[in-house]
Every structure is written in C-alpha cells, then in structure tokens.
Amino acid sequence: QVQLVESGGGLVQAGGSLRLSCAASGRTFSNYHMGWFRQAPGKEREFVATISRSGGNTYYADSVKGRFTISRDNAENTVYLQMNSLKPEDTAVYYCAANSYLLAPTLANQYAYWGQGTQVTVSS
Hints:
The chain contains no helices and eleven strands. The chain has strands at about 5, 10-15, 20-25, 35-40, 45-50, 60, 70-75, 80-85, 90-100, 115, 120-124.
C-alpha cells in the first residue's frame, strides 16, 4: 500500500548534522503514522522518533531527544529526520517505517511498512 525510500545518510564528524528524508509513494500518505528506527551492527533495531498523521504529535527516544527532530510534509509525501549534535553512538542504518494505526508507536512491530534503510556513520 505504501513504499518508502530513505535518503540523506552519509559520513559526518561528531557534533555535525545530517538530515534524512523518507519519500513515500501512495495516495494516502497522510493516513499513516510515520517512524524512524535505527539498527547498529550486532544490535537490535531501536526506536528513534515517531510522528502522527497530521504531524501534531511527536515522540523521541531519550537517547536522541533534544538533538533530533522528526517532521513531515504531507503535500510532499515525505517525512524527515533532522539530526544535530551527532555522536558516534548514533552510527547505524536508519529506517523509515509507516502504519495506518499504532497502539504503541515506539515498537517496531507496530509498523507494517519499511524502507530499505540509509547508513549514517558518525566519526569521532
């Protein structure tokens, strides 16, 4: 029902910034809750941020709160993750995810659709 394509990953020094984009295909993008998750090598996929259908509600993992900002532009069918003050521990593959209904937006199993991921590497 929806396809997600992440972009914007790359290599950045600690303290730097990066903006990830997730472009969604589909006629009803505004119907979907969106989330960002990340997975480092050898680690479980972890929640990063989520945003409601209208963009009015956001929630962040404690590890990124105050540094990352999730936003969406429903007219562009795109969700963003602005990452500031990056740390080496932020290094991971970042995934965009979507679902039409969420009971617990911090849980990966609540999301039905996933992008392919984009690599973010933060050097010390």
